Amino acid sequence: MELGIFTIGDVTTDPTNGTTVSENQRIKNTVEIAKKAEEVGLDVFATGQHHNPPFVAPANPPVLLSHIAAQTEKLHLSTATTLITTTDPVRIAEDYAYAQHLSDGRISLVMGRGNTGPVYPWFGKDIRSGIPLAVENYNLLYRLWREKNLDWEGKFRTPLNGFTVTPTPLDDVPPFVWHGSIRSPEIAEQAAYYGDGYFHNNIFWPMSHTARMVQLYRQRYEYYGHGAANQAIVGLGGQVFMRKNSQDAVNEFRPYFDNAPVYGHGPSLEDFSTQTPLTVGSPQQVIERTLSFRDWAGDYQRQLFLIDHAGLPQKTVLEQLDLLGEEVVPVLRKEFAKNRPADVPDAPTHESLVIRHREGRDPIPGGGPGSRAYADRQAKAAEQKDTQGADR
Amino acid sequence: MRILSITTSLSEDSTTLKLANKITAAATSAADDAGLSPETDHVNVRNLSSDLTDMALTGFCSENLEAAFAHVAESDVIVTVAPVYKVAPVGLHTLFWQLIDEKALANKPVLIGSTGGTPRHSMAGETVLRPMLSYLKGIVVPTTVFAATDDWGSVEGGRSLNARIAQASEELIGLAASLGGVAAAPHAGAEASSASTGEFGRPGARRNPSIDDEFNPEFITPFSQLLEG
């Protein structure tokens, strides 16, 4: 189980005093947060990708992740979104492979489509093709990381002829990929097809819905023969704010909640806390709520918390990290390990992926022999053959 | 047959609620006459007011609101009644229909009712709500029911209101019956869901795909098809 934090890099005015940090300060704060995450014993720091204010999450996340990699030892560095729709897959393949080398394999990616319509045309794309772009671009990225002298032709980018990514991935093992989506079944299906991970940001949606997406991914993962449903690789987000005394947490967080981008001036903190995974309270409450995710998601591999948004002061964010590191994460680690079946895999690491690769156990996209998907394909092909025979 | 009234009744004993009850009763009796075993239910949009504004602001659909939307999906015919403010049904009411899934009303007969102070508001249902409900693929019956203060206050008015209600209800139930597949028995649910198994859009699949179907491994588009584009 990997435990960590993810950020969207929003530059938001602190509603309690009207101050807004500069972009420069927010960027430096982000680096400080990542370093602190390692210091307090978290496993993962993840960043979004953004091209529009009020966000300073990097347009090219490997820039930030490599910078942090140079200043940390063990921390896993991930994206919370890599925009697979509007970013050229060739650049994703090259930039992240480069960062993977620099970080000695500490890089992973969460693929996302992005939901801001105007961003797409800036990169010559159209949001209405969001799903087809995610499908074609990822398929290209997948091949770029595994094939040399690639010949490729698709709908959305100029063809490639004899192309080889430089650098090729470290130890010939690409960074681990999660596919993130709040409510598109196609993306859960995509993750299952490739045997990749599935990540749900778990912030704006009722948990009953999130559970359905996770369930779909797990069932299809099994269908494609990558393992049993309970062995699929699931990641969840979540949102917390803590103080030792839970009422202090509520009082302090309320103005930030009430004015937050996206959900501010809408539902009450109390309603939103009931209906979504947001937890504002004591470390013990955060522990209990987070452990309850397992009841509907099954044993999972990655848990990321959002802690640095809505204009919260840097000092407060660092205090949240102290609480996570001292009181929450050690208990979560222990409790999540309890009753976890031995056949449920840990979160993939570069080391585990290298072993899997060398043992010839890499997932076969669409399912290899022995999978139900494979059997269905064979049956369908036989059926078509029969029909053709009958036609003659 | 499930008859659902979606009504925005702003006070407890409003004329809007009265009108909704009258229409529902007339529709029930018409369905009885047609041997369609009616069951009725009622949603007051007033109780969803903060859920609706929250969803408009955040895109987040609360459990209550989701239950109401699911209720619409499960019903066979819809009666919708709202008070008219400034020549349009009150915004809370239109917000409900503006936030529900597209095609939420596919193949469902719908009856529009409105209330207002004076007959000058009588076209509000026609001009505002009818296109909106048609956009949601509802089949809106030709007669709409508008009740002004006059209709409640005089014997004549009452008679003509009742006549309009009877006319609209018969259109509603007649349409439902002719659309076929409307369940005459309580087993309707089971029948409808077995009829919709298989792929979406298959002929004969009457019910809209629900959110459960959307995440059902049997219904999703296999990735190989997505890859082929």
Automatic annotation (TrEMBL), chain A:
Region (Disordered): 340-392
Record-linked Pfam families: Bac_luciferase (PF00296)
InterPro entries in alphabetical order: Bact_Lucif_Oxidored, LLM_FMN-dep_put, Luciferase-like_dom, Luciferase-like_sf
Domain Luciferase-like, residue spans: 1-298
Gene Ontology annotations for the cellular component aspect, listed alphabetically: cytosol
Domain of life of the source: Bacteria
Keywords noted in UniProt: Monooxygenase, Oxidoreductase
GO molecular function annotation: monooxygenase activity; oxidoreductase activity, acting on paired donors, with incorporation or reduction of molecular oxygen
Biased composition (Basic and acidic residues): 353-362, 374-392
PANTHER family the UniProt entry points to: BLR5498 PROTEIN, LUCIFERASE-LIKE MONOOXYGENASE
Name of protein: Luciferase-like monooxygenase, FMN-dependent, CE1758 family
Organism name: Brevibacterium sandarakinum
From TrEMBL, chain B:
SUPFAM superfamilies tied to this protein: Flavoproteins
Coiled coil: none
Region named Disordered: 190-217
Low complexity biased stretches: 190-199
NADPH-dependent FMN reductase-like domain: residues covered: 1-150
UniProt keyword list: Flavoprotein, FMN, Oxidoreductase
Annotated InterPro entries: Flavoprotein-like_sf (IPR029039), FMN_Rdtase-like_dom (IPR005025), NAD(P)H-dep_FMN_reductase (IPR051814)
Gene3D superfamilies per UniProt: 3.40.50.360
Protein name as catalogued: FMN reductase
Organism: Brevibacterium picturae
